[in-house]
Structure formats: structure tokens, C-alpha cells
Amino acid sequence: MNAETIHLTLSWHDWLNLFAHYLMLSLMSLGGAISTTSEMHRFLVEQHGWLTQAQFNDSIALAQAAPGPNVLFVALMGWHVGMNAGSTTAAFLGVAVTMVGILLPSTIFTYQVAQWGHRNRELRAVRAFKQGMAPVVIAMLLSTAWILASSAGRGVADWPLWVLALASCLVMWRTRLHLLWVLGAGALLGAFGVV
Predict the structure, then answer these.
(1) Which of 36, 81, 136, 170 stands the most exposed, by the fewest C-beta atoms within 10 Å?
(2) CA–CA separation, 111 and 95 (whole Å)
(3) CA 73/CA 1 separation, integer angstroms
């Protein structure tokens, strides 16, 4: 992970702002928390400067590589915000603020909607909603991929990476090959310096 940090002074108002923002993101996270990373990036890196680009990318990469739920990247972002504020105590506060913020509303909302949707699964509106949400979730995930891929600033120079990403998508879409084989192939290509 990159050792680059920034030094912040956060007031209680800043912590409340961070919590409120993650509450709002929770209600937008229809494809999971990862689908809102473009907004997290705008808020944490671009607007407030509470995270560096490297810390943002490292949080996502580490959480995606680790076993367990991928929402852990939210905890890592909160940890980095707290560490940038100067203490381990603030880091734990950052984890609590971001994780409770991202989990609480969506958990309550999902539970209530799932019960209602199950009881009314034959309604045309319920079926239409499920089908209509698929393109929205895909678009949000693509915006996340775009931010992560373009952060290096090399653009066309990264053409092997773009070809590998497209090939991986096609393999997963058109075959029954398990995702771990695709990830392993990408890791080997990276180890040999192809991408």
C-alpha cells in the first residue's frame, strides 16, 4: 500500500458530514456499496481532500482482494480518513462512521422492501422494477471501473489492460469458466509484466 498520507484537522461537523454522506450513499447503493464509489471518490478525494488518490485505490483493491464482504473498502476509507486526521482513535471513529452510515439505512430498507416484494412478487410493478434496475446497477459499476482505470492518467498507453478487461468480460459472459480462473490468468499476466 502507498505510504502517502495527508494531515487533516477534522471537527465534529466534518465527522457528521461524513456520516450523513454515507447515509445518503447507502440509499443509492443498489448494486452494493461498490456501485457508489464514483460518488465516494468525488466526496473524499476531489471535494474534501480527505483521501489521496492512492489511498482511495488501495482501499478498494485491498478489500476486493481480501476474503469476505467487499463492503470492507468503506471501512478502509474511513480508516484512512481517521489516520489522516492523526490518530488511531480517529481511525476507529472513521471506520465506525463510514460503516454504520453505509450499512444502517440500506439494511433496514432492504429488509422491509424484500418482505414486501416477496409478498407481492407477482405484481407487474415489482417485476418491472427488478428488470429496470439491472441497467442502473451496471452503469454505476462501469463508472467505478472508469474512475479506477483512468486514475493512472496513462489512457491509451494502457491498451493491454483495456484489452484484458474486455477479454475477461467476454470470457465470463460467454463461458462457464469460473471467475477465479480469470482472476488467476490476469494475475499471471500482471506478474509477467504484460499488463
Answers:
(1) 170
(2) 23
(3) 13
Phi, psi of 102 (to 5 degrees): -80, -25
pLDDT of residue 45: 95
52 vs 19, 35, 37, 73, 96, CA distance in Å?
19, 20, 14, 15, 20
The pLDDT, as a whole number, for residue 193 is 81
C-alpha cell at 121: 412478487
39 three-class SS: helix
What is d(CA 126, CA 130) in angstroms, rounded to the nearest whole number?
6
Residue range 71-94, pLDDT digits in tens = 899 999 999 999 999 889 999 999
Element (H, E) at 2: none
CA angle 146–171–162, rounded 5-degree value: 30
HEC assignment per residue over 120-180? CCCCHHHHHHHHHHHHHHHHHHHHHHHHHHHCCCCHHHHHHHHHHHHHHHHHHHHCCCCHH
Q: Report pTM.
A: 0.63
At 88-135, the pLDDT tens digits run 999 999 999 999 999 999 889 889 988 998 899 899 998 898 889 888
The answer to whether the beta carbons of residues 189 and 182 sit under 8 Å apart is no
